[in-house]
Every structure is written in structure tokens, then in C-alpha cells.
Amino acid sequence: MTSPTFAAPDAEPAPPLPPAVRRRARRTLLLLAVVCVLPVLASYLMFYLWPPQGRVNHGTLLAPVPLPATVLDGAGGQPALARAELEGRWTLLITAPAACDAACARALYVSRQAHLAQAREMARVGRVWLITDGGEPAAEHLSSAPAGAPSAHPPGGGLRLARADAAWLEVLAPAAPGTIYLVDPLGQRMMRFDDAPGRTAAAQALSRDLQRLLKYSGLGRTPPGARP
Predict the structure, then answer these.
(1) Which residue from 98, 97, 127, 124 is spatially nearest to 203, judged by alpha carbons?
(2) In terms of C-beta density within 10 A (0-12 exposed, 13-18 middle, 19 or more buried), how is residue 108 classed?
């Protein structure tokens, strides 16, 4: 004999939350949002608002703007470049035609020297040259070494080549010749280093700013046991 079934009464709608409860919920969501962006803000604030006495900043801080999600064609035989490849570490980014004038050559040299100067932290920094035309860079533009010396940018040495598109150039505009942009580990353009005639002094200045950012922020730091 089967047991009789009874229809469950219709559930009554939940009463609206009191205003005080809604305000607490909004405050909680706001707090979570702040916690998510706190590591980025902390690195910027420590770098610019609480500097050591007598310190001089060499780069120009920019409002953080995410690089586009478009995938760029590779250049110089390298694969395509997506913004996701830049995320997780700091990136020194240059835009210039393949012919690479004197300002472009200085920017490549300065970015390379600043990268090498990070020593043990070098894996936290990448380098990208966005080529703004359809040409192919000559071998001498990929080497800052004297003639006959080993290339300063050997295969796998960290310099990524890709073709810039209109969306990326819009975020990076106006890019004067020789400008080096710093992209943070969230894929945001956040600092600019202008061209300077003294490339050794410029490399030292960029290196010092980069060292301070790496010191103040854990962003881009490879977790223990993880592959760089």
C-alpha cells in the first residue's frame, strides 16, 4: 500500500533585508575588492608616496591601463604574443620600426642593461620590442655588443619580438622615439622612461627604479618550487 503524497505548500518569498544588513553586505563587497587590488596599490604607494629621504624617481608614473587582449603576430621568427604572456612579471616594453634608429638602439641597450642588473631577480623581468611596421630587424639591431662579439640578445635571451597593432599602440601613445614603458604583472602599462643621450646613466636610473619596485612588491615573484 503506497503512502499518500502531499503537495508542499508554496514557499513564501523571503522578506527584504533590513537596510542595516544591506549596508553591511555592501561594505563587505567593497572590502573584498580593496583586498584584491591591495598588492598593486601597495607597490605604487610605497614607491612614490613614502620614498626614502633624498631619493629621486627617474621614471614617470602613469595611470595604470591594461594592455589590449588582442594577440600580436610574432616577428623575427618568434611566436605570437598575447597579453597573458606578460602577466605574472614586470616587462620593459619598446615600440619602434624594424629599421631601429639611434633612439631605438639606446632603448634596447638600456632595457637590456637594466634587466641584467636585477641579477637574482632577473627572472621577474621581461623585455618586449613591438615592431611598428612590416620590416624585419637587422641582426645588428638585436645586439648591443661590439662587432664580432657574441650577440647581446641570443636566442632564448629574453627579448620578445612582435608586431604592434592599432589597439596596443593606442594604449602606448604617444610613444616618443626611445621611450621604454614598464608593464606591471597584471598586464597594465604603468610607468614611462624617456629617451636620454647618456645610455649608461639611463640604464642605471631605470635599474634603480626597477629594483625598488621589485623590493616593495611581491608581484611577479615565482613561488617556491615553481619553474621561472
Answers:
(1) 127
(2) buried
C-alpha 96/C-alpha 75 separation (Å) is 13
CA dist 69 and 197 (Å) reads: 34
32: left (phi over 0), alpha (psi -120 to 50) or beta: alpha
Counted residue by residue, the chain has a size of 228
Alpha carbons 151 and 95: distance in angstroms, whole number: 21
3-state class (DSSP) for residue 130: strand
**pLDDT band at residue 143 using 50, 70 and 90 as cut-offs:** low
Q: What would be the CATH architecture of the domain defined by 23-216? A: 3-Layer(aba) Sandwich (3.40)
Report which of residues 9 and 16 the model is more confident about.
Answer: 16
Whole-number Å distance between alpha carbons of 228 and 226: 6
Domain positions in the chain are: 23-216
**Distance (Å, whole) CA 33 – CA 64:** 17
Contact (CB, 8 A) for 201 and 208: no
